[in-house]
Amino acid sequence: MADPDSQKVMLVAPTDILPIVEEEDTKPPPFMPVNGFDSLDAMTPASKPPLGDRYFYVPSSMITDIIADERMGGPLFEWTVPKDIELDDMEEEVDKEEEAALTTVAGQLQYPWSPLEHIHPESPVILREDEPSSVIAFTLRSKQYQHALAALRADARLNVEVEKPICIDFDDITGDADGSQLKFSCQVFYAEEFEELRAACGIDKLYVESLARCFKYDTSGGRSGMLFLKTRDTRFMIKQLSRAERDALEHFAPMYLEHMSRAATTKLPTTLAKIFGFYTIKIKHSSTNKNTRLDLFVMEDLFFGKEDIKVFDLKGSERNRHVQSTGRRGEVFLDSNFVEYIYKSPLFLREHSKKMLRACVWNDTIFLSKQGVMDYSLLVGVDQKRQELVVGIVDFIRTFTWDKRLESFVKDTGLLGGGGKQPTIVKPKVYKRRFRNSMESYFLCVPDKHSPPL
């Protein structure tokens, strides 16, 4: 039986098949690890001949069935193809076997996308029919949008006034099994201005990533019949607009963006919730001719990252502003509920916090009143565990239009009752004054060590 150590490396005479190491070479040849050895130096001196000898190292695994015997009378590893075998036939047979194997494997694979998911070479984002925010994310990452935005910025540098929104249309090249296609479009309103606002807030990169996925969010404080969504990471909210609200926002957005820009550059205190985008999306199936249109805007979630907080929607009126608690998570309470709450557990603010809240409410109500806006709310989140209040003014899109005037008249005259309490809908200047007074009374100031002496 052969010595086990002798099986580690065999010395083979050089042939035309195996490369050899010439005497003038100064470096060892490429070497493949053999039985744990990863270099020539790791081998025993007895088994390592000088490089000048015309020998080549071959792992024993490569010559399992070959024995170095003098009786073989020929170079090792030499093999002649039999005359009755054609190489082309052999290669064709191998190709057929490989094709059959690939066909078997491919038959077991499933298409990775659902019928509601679509891909397009214009954008890396997957478009999902049941997630409207994905249409927005898809558009913002598309080449068409980037080119249109660059052209818009070039016009702005030339002082060319552009008021039309960027409109991007796509045809779904993936199609359905029956050959039908999905066509969709997305209008991006005030694209450059909202891009600048997102950049100023530091969310320009994560914005598209968040919008790629969303889910329906049910809230007791939401508007009946309107779609209300949240991104999967809960960072942003997407709200559907009625036609009247869409027209109002299209008119209101330039002033809002200017106000937010001024607040950022001059450090003007503001508590207006941030709107980060305004869009109209349309989806059409060629097979069913079903058309879907949604007017949407994206805003920050004031309570992102907050848990176990009690939320109130405050308008400064107690008329029809009370809800019964359902015990559901995320429910929103109103003014009368808040009055009951602070009666049992008053909310005391430090002097600095009180002054900051007062300044924010004052600045924002002046701005909203000038734009003819009313019926806005101060959304308040009470975090008892951390002893914090999170506040922001929301629902400030609707202006004092004829339908609101009619609602105000009906409530003013008491045709629908109301117990003598002030109506929710009043003229913008009246609403501003009432809103300020109510917020001043809802939150009490308590002196601390930094307060001036009385």
From TrEMBL:
Coiled-coil portions: none
Record-linked InterPro entries: PIKfyve_PIPKc, PInositol-4-P-4/5-kinase_C_sf, PInositol-4-P-4/5-kinase_core, PInositol-4-P-5-kinase_N
Claim: Nucleotide-binding is one of the keywords in the record: yes
Transmembrane segments: none
Organism domain of life: Eukaryota
Any one GO MF annotation of this record: 1-phosphatidylinositol-3-phosphate 5-kinase activity
GO cellular component terms attached to this protein's record: endosome membrane; fungal-type vacuole membrane
A biological-process GO annotation: phosphatidylinositol phosphate biosynthetic process
Pfam families registered for this protein in UniProt: PIP5K (PF01504)
Keyword tags: ATP-binding, Kinase, Nucleotide-binding, Transferase
PROSITE patterns reported for this sequence: PIPK
Keyword Cytoplasm applies: no
Protein name listed in UniProt: PIPK domain-containing protein
Species in which this protein is naturally found: Synchytrium endobioticum
